[in-house]
Amino acid sequence: MTKTALVVVDMLNTYEHADADLLLPSVTGIVPVVVDLLRHAREHDVPVIYANDNFGQWRSHHGEILDTALSGRRPDLVEPIRPDEDSLFVVKARHSVFYETPLAYLLGKLGVGHLVLCGQVTEQCILYSALDAHIRHLSVTVAEDAVAHIHEDLAQAALRMMERNMSARVLPASDIGW
Predict the structure, then answer these.
(1) What is the DSSP string of 93-125?
(2) Cβ contacts of residue 45 below 8 Å, gap of 6+?
(3) pTM exceeds 0.70 for this model
(4) What is the pLDDT averaged over residues 37-54?
(5) What strands, in cross-sheet order, belong to the sheet with 48-53?
(6) What are the pLDDT digits (tens) for 77-130?
(7) What's the confidence (pLDDT) of residue 62?
(8) Could you give the CA distance from residue 53 to residue 11 in angstroms, rounded to a whole number?
(9) Sign, CA torsion 151/152/155/156
């Protein structure tokens, strides 16, 4: 059986960016589902990896990124999903969790061949991360009720693309078998 990791994408967010107001309703809806995913992953000893933008602060580290997000507009959306002491962290530069990060190396060291993706934004970072996982021969599950979108129509198209073109499993978080 392939080892699984839960990848939490860009959920440590200040919500002080151009698309924040369009994104917030969707994020508000997924936070409880992400909390459940985190709990289930930790209960089943599944590695939890946060892959997060660094807000353009190239000297920042995961603690500073968390502090910045907690000081942003919506700490109530960050606090419930904050990393615990066992969580792993990858600072990402752009949309994909793989682009210019050590994630592929980390997954290899952990023996992970399957990713469960949750977080934001479905039609951007989740889509590009799923594609990059696919081309690395990793299997992907997208928890469709644990990914937030800016534009619902694009998010639905992105989910279909991940399922059809990347062989991703797209299903509710409650159906993920750990």
Answers:
(1) SSSSSSTTSSHHHHHHHHTEEEEEEEEE-IIII
(2) none
(3) yes
(4) 95
(5) 88-92, 48-53, 3-9, 112-120, 139-148, 169-171
(6) 999 999 999 999 999 988 999 999 999 999 999 999 999 999 999 999 999 999
(7) 78
(8) 9
(9) negative
Single-letter code of the amino acid located at 94? R
**pLDDT at residue 134 greater than cutoff 80:** yes
**Residue 1: its pLDDT value, please?**
63
Q: Are 8 and 47 in contact (CB under 8 A)?
A: no
With beta carbons less than 8 A apart as the criterion, state whether 92 and 53 touch: yes
What residues pair up with 53 in beta bridges, in sequence order? 92
Closest to 9 measured CA to CA, from 90, 113, 66: 90
Answer whether 33's CB lies under 8 Å from 173's CB.
Answer: yes
Single-letter amino acid code for the residue at 24: L
